[in-house]
Design a protein that fits this description.
By secondary structure, the chain is of the alpha/beta class. Helix content is 36%, strand content 11%. It has one domain: TIM Barrel, CATH 3.20.20.370. It has nine helices and seven strands, in the order αβαβααβαβαβαβαβα. The chain binds zinc ion.
């Protein structure tokens, strides 16, 4: 248990150092400046149209590694991987657009869904083949998005398990051990309670599109420019349509920077 606490605190220190926003409430200003410089993104490329996608991205050919037993803010080691994660699902249209984008581009995504949104049932038929092929992974973001640090142990458990049941019903998969605490709100108690029911892998982030609330498409591109970097776990949201207007720009950025998008299952053995 002491080891777990040390590892957990190590992770916590990381997020304090990184200071990144997800689900809008957390907005610290101590983000480090990325040291890797790239050319400018092509802001004037057209809105994403499936038939005009340059080429499907290949599936990853990588050696899986053992998952560290702590909260993760970035992908371990050095490389050109990027985990693009998408949370919530307040908008059925945005979830649908992400599914179409994934299918057309080959981009690999991890959705941290809240089962309270009908968008997931609305789009289950469209998403299911992508989930079955492994291109899209579904992670647990709790059923109704509470601050877990403010909830009792039993609510933490019921929020995770109710959402897992919804995911199983819609997609036929078990999201464990991967979960993302809403607002990034986690402490040692939440970490331990979640782990006691199989959720030993809190997935945090190192970079955000900051679109849990409404921002402009140009702002989404600006955040992608800042955070689409090697070994980053980047958080976006399926809540507002701005991101769907710039899928082409985001895909181009990934190709320019020679990033390989991955799901968590692509990276980790367990
Ligand atoms: Zn969220």
């Amino acid at each position: 248990m002491e080891m777990e606490r040390r590892e957990f605190l190590g992770g916590l220190t990381s997020i304090l150092a990184l200071g990144l926003s997800g689900c809008s409430e957390i907005a610290l200003n101590s983000s480090p400046t990325p040291t890797i410089k790239y050319g400018p993104a092509p802001y004037k490329t057209p809105e994403f149209v499936p038939s005009r996608t340059p080429r499907p991205l290949p599936p990853p050919s990588i050696d899986k590694i053992t998952r560290p037993r702590r909260a993760l803010y970035r992908l371990p080691g050095e490389g050109n991987l990027m985990a693009w994660t998408v949370d919530d699902g307040a908008s059925s249209e945005v979830v649908s657009a992400y599914a179409k984008f994934a299918k057309s581009s080959g981009i690999r995504l991890t959705f941290f869904m809240n089962g309270m949104y009908s968008s997931w049932a609305d789009n289950a038929k469209q998403l299911r083949p992508l989930v079955e092929s492994g291109q899209v992974q579904i992670g647990n973001h709790t059923f109704s998005h509470p601050w877990l640090t403010k909830e009792s142990d039993s609510v933490i458990v019921s929020q995770l398990l109710k959402n897992a049941k919804t995911i199983k019903n819609l997609f036929g998969v078990d999201p464990a051990p991967y979960y993302r605490p809403p607002y990034g709100a986690i402490d040692f108690r939440v970490f331990s309670v979640a782990a006691s029911v199989g959720y030993s892998a809190p997935i945090m982030w190192y970079g955000s599109l900051s679109d849990s609330g409404k921002i402009t498409p140009e702002q989404v591109v600006d955040f992608a420019e800042k955070w689409f970097l090697p070994q980053h776990i980047v958080i976006g949201h399926a809540n507002y349509p701005s991101v769907t207007k710039v899928f082409t720009q985001l895909l181009t950025l990934i190709i320019q920077r020679q990033l390989q998008t991955v799901t968590l299952n692509d990276v980790f053995l367990n």
